[in-house]
Amino acid sequence: MVREFELPDVGEGVAEGEIVDWLVEEGDAVEEDQPVAEVETDKAVVDVPSPVDGSVQEIHAEAGEMVPVGTVIITFAEEGDEATSTEEPTETDATTEESAATGDVETTAEGTADEETPTASGRVFAAPSARRLARELGVDIGSIDGSGPGGRVSEHDVQAAADDATGTDEEESDSPEPAATRVEDSSGANAGSTDSAGGGAAQTSSTGQPSASGSASSGAMAGESADRERTLAAPATRKLAEDSGIDIDAVPTDEERDGEAFVTPAAVESYAEAQQAAQDADRKALAGARDEERIPYRGVRRTIGQQMAESKYTAPHVTHHDEVDVTALVEARTDLKELADEQEISLSYMPFVMKACVAALREFPMVNSMLDEEAEEIVQKKYYNIGVATATDAGLMVPVVEDADRKNMLQLASEMNELVEKARERTISRDEMQGGTFTITNVGAIGGEYATPIVNHPEVAILALGAIKEKPRVVDGEIVPRKVMTLSLSIDHRVIDGAIAAQFTNRVEEFLQNPQRLLLEA
Amino acid sequence: MVVGDVTTGTDVLIIGAGPGGYVAAIRAGQLDLDVTLVEKEAYGGTCLNHGCIPSKALISATDVAHDASTAEEMGIHADPAVDLAGMVSWKDDVVEQLTSGVEKLCKANGVNLVEGRAEFAGENTVRVAHAGEGQGSETIEFEHAIVATGSRPMEIPNFEFDGEHIISSREALALDAVPESLVVVGAGYIGMELSTVFAKLGTDVTVVEMLDSVLPAYEDDVARVVKNRAEELGIDFYFGEGASEWEESGDGITVKTETEDGDISEFGAEKALVAVGREPVTDTLNLDAIGLATDEGGFLETDDRARTDVENVFAVGDVAGEPMLAHKGMKEGEVAVEVIAGEPSALDYQSVPAAVFTDPEIGTVGMTEEEAEEAGFSTVVGEMPMRASGRALTLGESDGFVRVVADDDAGFILGAQIVAPEASEMIAELGLAVEMGATLEDVAATIHTHPTLGEAVMEAVENARDRAIHTLNR
């Protein structure tokens, strides 16, 4: 039995993953549960185990490739029989010899639709016309997130998915094409015509949307130049060509209207881009390259980006800054650190700050809340899960220490250290980075004074710690050197007002200034 | 017709001109394929000649008489005289009109028609034996073949069809006189449709069913409406009994039945109609010649392109498996030809609607509530009893209901069961809804003409949303 193996859902809600590395090669024998691939999701790297005893027949995705969950990434031959795969290609032969009536797109269509992956409960909600288009374009309709009610997949969704898949950046125009005008050639705008607007003899030809398959394939051949005598195109298309410095008769197309070559705006654009790319390449070759590197924006990087954008564009941010004298805290921590070391726990300032924050959060429950916009309710959390923003090689991660209010200082320290270590080694699970109610980011560990951190949405507040520095302070009328730390609290102003932010910060400061007060907190 | 064995060639060879075959042939003609359609008997197949069409003709004609004679409530007092031979002759005219229409359509689309019985002779050839002594045979080479040979009524042991005492649906639709009494073996849809016809014509009908209910393929509450009505018409039911043997007695016959425990009963009647199901016709095809085998039920297995295990051989309609319904075969016929023509066609329909032309009718599409639950949906169900429909009351037919099953989360309509007058027509709207992925809201927000039976669909959908106007939302 040949067993096709789809990229499983490797974590709650993960839609796609990057194949970081294959741990097996085609032909390798595998045992059930043996890791065969490393897959990076938006947060973590996980091993994907083999579901069977047998051998690797074919690997369908390359290392570095981003694949949606549900895509077949590897085929196994289950123990007992090895090579049955050779039979499949004959399937497609049939279409070639059957091509009594039609063209070329269908060959791929048949192959792909056969591999359709079943969706949850096996049902895709889509109109027959959308399903037909999916077959035509070779798109697995089950893998498309529909934009209709309840996720119904429309023809537009299918087209968009197909465009994504082929990587063509064709523009899908919803508006009907304007009537095409027939012009003798591109320079023939003055060919005895009085119609200055159309710029041509303005003999309207029959119009209609270019077929999806037609425009897709015209994009594919955009690199080569055509050399026609005459070309049909809409006035807007001609203008586009002119603006792009392109001869419309050179734009390749395989579409025809009334037996004449017909050029769409998409064809002009892709041709222009191809020309541009070619010129760039030439220029680079001549002038010695201005070196650039393009790094894929995906995985952890993209997740961070999306999170940040969502937070910043959703929550109106206000940041409150202040300084706090932490001389006493520095002393207390120095004393306690030795004791902690005896238990082989590294005690940083963070657990003190966490404790101070929890105490202040209790007093200002709005700061420990989230906004449920749909329900139009503010949800005050009665638990205190503190996120600790952590810089890793892959980017920012936020491990969450759960129930910080119920743990003592050493427990907080050891748990946090462990989570931070896991985040840096990228062995941390998604669960361990979810469910936070408030976040602390220790920017000062690296340097700097103040920050304007972005709230870890849907939380509503984040506290950034600056570096502890010795600064001159006035104590009892005298200038003395004191240890001073800066605090920057960003809030979601929809939920928290500036006054609360200031009061909350004051309360945190009181605890940090007088750490013994933490003794009164459970 | 050609006499002697000559060989011709064709792109697409279709065996059987029933709904699957003739639709495939016409579509092939439309797609400019060189197509040959072989039919041994009559264009239109079982459906047009011995099934759907003649039975519907008789059901409608019978209803005219029966309705007239049972309309005292409406102030109509009539006792129509039924001349069965006349009725059958009218039905034959209808059939003739349709079958000759099919033939004309085929010709107009350039389909090459060949009369005779086809069997495979080799990987790419069939041999067609022409009907009649000395008419000879011909060999046709094909690129692609589509098997559309349909099905025939199933026999049970000791009850071979003899056309006189033991009849199948086919003969039942061509009787020249109304039998005084009839034992119907099998309470499936064919048995129930014909029992109703004969009961309305005055025949004393007894139905014997091995299982424990009428229309076992349908939900209990749906089947119950039909059974109650059938009993009102005077049909007697005996469940859990299988017909074991029969003998002639006087002018008629005596049918013996046996329960699982071995209890034996006897039923006297003029004739016995055996309607226990249909079996695919694949044994006449010499499938060995192309290296094809049937499954245990005699069906040809096909993929979602209607293709069999042999690359260039397709199977459509009843031979390709359940449900044995003409419209399913038609769809398969179209898809098979489109695939042959290289189009990206596939059998990707969500559901095959079904209708039973009993009194009242049944129309179903998609999933029942139970099936939807099993498929993992959390469901919501809406119903509208026909007694709350103004139009049903004005028709004097208020038995039954419309039920709609939907996905509770997104509101997608997953299926519907209708038992009501004109249920076969009403189901079409819900078939479209299921196929389009329409939601309850979509159908509810569509204005339905008043006063029509179709309004009941809207009301059932609204009921699922707790917003029905003409019933209480429970």
TrEMBL record, chain A:
Pfam families: 2-oxoacid_dh (PF00198), Biotin_lipoyl (PF00364), E3_binding (PF02817). One of its GO terms (molecular function) is acetyltransferase activity. It comes from Halococcus thailandensis JCM 13552. Belongs to the 2-oxoacid dehydrogenase family. Residues 125-162 form the Peripheral subunit-binding (PSBD) domain. Residues 97-111, 186-224 have a biased composition (Low complexity). This is Branched-chain alpha-keto acid dehydrogenase subunit E2. Keywords: Acyltransferase, Lipoyl, Transferase. Residues 80-127, 141-259 are annotated as: Disordered. Signal peptide: none annotated.
TrEMBL record, chain B:
Keywords: Disulfide bond, FAD, Flavoprotein, NAD, Oxidoreductase, Redox-active center. It is an enzyme of class 1 (oxidoreductase). Pfam families: Pyr_redox_2, Pyr_redox_dim. GO terms for molecular function: dihydrolipoyl dehydrogenase (NADH) activity; flavin adenine dinucleotide binding. It catalyses: N(6)-[(R)-dihydrolipoyl]-L-lysyl-[protein] + NAD(+) = N(6)-[(R)-lipoyl]-L-lysyl-[protein] + NADH + H(+). Residues 352-460 form the Pyridine nucleotide-disulphide oxidoreductase dimerisation domain. Its EC number is 1.8.1.4. Gene3D superfamilies: 3.30.390.30, FAD/NAD(P)-binding domain. Binds 1 FAD per subunit. The keyword Transmembrane does not apply. One of its GO terms (biological process) is 2-oxoglutarate metabolic process. Residues 11-333 form the FAD/NAD(P)-binding domain. Its cofactor is FAD. Belongs to the class-I pyridine nucleotide-disulfide oxidoreductase family. NCBIfam families: lipoamide_DH. The active site is a redox-active disulfide bond. This is Dihydrolipoyl dehydrogenase.
